[in-house]
Amino acid sequence: MPGQPAPGQGQFRGEQQGLGVNGARGDFNVPGRPGYIPGGFRENDEVRDYEQVRRDRREFQADGRTYYREPGRVIVQDRNGYLIRHDENERFRELDPRGYRYERRGSDYISFIDRPGGDRIYTVTDDDGRLLRRYRRFSDGREVVIIDNTYGGPPRPIYDDVVVLPPPDIRIPRDRYVVEYDQADPGLVYEALTAPPVVNVDRRYTLDQIRYSPDLRARMRSVDIDTINFDTGSFTVTPDQARRLSVIADAINKAIRANPQEVFLIEGYTDAVGSDIDNLSLSDRRAQSVATVLTQQFQVPPENLTTQGYGEQYLKVNTQGPSRENRRVTVRRITPLLQQGQNQGGGQGQYQDQGAPPPR
Length: 360
What we know:
Layout: H1 50-56, E1 58-62, E2 65-70, E3 73-78, E4 81-86, H2 90-95, E5 101-105, E6 108-114, E7 120-126, E8 131-137, E9 143-148, H3 174-177, E10 178-180, H4 186-192, H5 207-211, H6 214-217, E11 222-225, H7 239-243, H8 246-258, E12 264-268, H9 276-298, E13 305-309, E14 329-333, H10 335-338
Helix pairs in contact: 4-8
Protein name: Outer membrane protein OmpA-like peptidoglycan-associated protein
Region (Disordered): 1-43, 337-360
Domain OmpA-like: 217-342
């Protein structure tokens, strides 16, 4: 890994317009095409409310598909519906707006924030804004990779990252497979967030494959946080609901202390009211809001969390009307899917000093 990036927030934003670096690797964000943004996402997009998101949304056509760009998000319409990709740095800028720094290095963008104790968290993305790698550099110079999204080969269009698998054969009680957070004791929450897959996982998957493949995610148990129910059209976690996250935050922190490479996916969902695009965008922002609260109020390491929205695709209550139960978030451990064969035990994984590979 080269030396640490110089604090260069915004130093190249205007300089790189028009440079054909890396291409779009299958997406519409290609130099010379309408809507191209170096690095995939603007660094200064600030969203005050969802009406602003709607006003700022733009539609583009490329490769026979329709793309929608809005602040911090790209949505693609595929034959089977819609998929969303977000700015991987947005949550980190929000956590530390003064300390966040980034620079361009070759065809990649490298950002970092400093964490308590002298650790530094790096995020590497490509020119299309795709996450390549996230890792932690300790104060003594050691590095540990949290997420490596590159071993599956060159990035593909997000609609090609869907992995088709048979649904898992669930042989444990339903209330242990999907834990209802409001009714569960802390021990059951911790068990669900440290348990191995419910069926054998025979290889590693990329983070993108996990995000976009429901039957793959279903191989891991989950905790349905039914104490967080967003207002219609809102992605704000109210203070009273934020306080209810303490039990799941304690479980996640305990798991990370046992294994610093644990990764937890926070999934956002909406009810069926409104358009598919609005619901997908709202759900993605809701998941990110919960991840931010977990770090800001309960000191959950942000690098061990990742988020994804699924809109109205998986309704908890089968209704097409307004439903607070459907406006929710779910948390699941995805470490064994990312690191198959390395850390599949129930919270007993050991720290591995892998050394961070150099940016591509």
